[in-house]
Amino acid sequence: MKLSQILFHPFLRIAGGPALLLGLATITLTGIIGAGQGLHFDGVLDTHTGKSGPWWLFVSEGLINWISLAVLLLIAGRTISKTAFRSIDLLGTQALSRWPTVLTALACLAPGFQRFSKALAKSIIGLKPGQMPQLPPAGPDAVVFGLVTLFMLACTVWMVALMWRSFSHCCNVRGGKAVATFVISLLLAEVLSKVLIGQLFRLL
Amino acid sequence: MKRFPVICPSCEHRLQVKRLTCDHCGTEVEGIYPLPMLAALSVEDQAFICDFVKASGSLKEMAALLKVSYPTVRNRLDEVIAKLQPTSPTP
Fold first, then answer.
1. Cβ-defined contact of A170 to B71 (cutoff 8 Å)
2. Which ranges of chain A does DSSP label H, i.e. alpha helix?
3. ipTM of the complex
4. I need a labelling partner for B19 at 20 to 30 A (CA). Which of A72, A166, B61, B82 fits?
């Protein structure tokens, strides 16, 4: 298997139960790494640093993100696909599509990123309307922050590419209609996951 | 090894059988016969169908045999089904 296939189309070789198990393991791992540093994946496409909390909260965020998109794509797939596909393949590959978030969570462990985000948050919190924030001074930490942010962005694009591959391959759909269906489902899932995670925070 | 031609190298339309010969007595039959549906498929597609029949039509078993995922085999089968549709111009 070529490296490009492993990175961008692993679903040629893996789907179903094994993909689901691996995907759930990566979602759990991301949640546990995120819990240690207050890194929230609070939406299908979102990554934010914030308050720390119990580890299960961070794992639940990942699970909500996964299930929100997977269920919407399952409905979309059943509507537009002409083939008889298995739900387990779409659910499993969608879970595995979230594996770049592990890399994002690991990259955010960089001490420079941690220091700069804390300083940035400190300069913004308590800001009055119209008041300009005093940004932390530019230095090595700012460079690390910038690089990690770029890496996070790349990982998000990569994750979306995997999500599309999973939908397209498992439901055997291609073309403009399939792309439009995917984009609409992604946007709806983003809103749905935000609402559900908001409800989750109310439990605390 | 010579490949059984199914597509015209000149205009890319499906070829037909014009002459059949008996190896035993040398009798020759001439006419225009369309290729059987399966014979008109590519060698790869024919091999896929053979493997599929040998696996008793189990896509799961085919996936294990070909070392690919279930949806990969399912999509491959969909491609072959599409080629077998009467509206399909060429394999």
1. yes
2. 3-8, 16-35, 55-80, 87-97, 100-107, 111-124, 140-171, 175-202
3. 0.84
4. B82
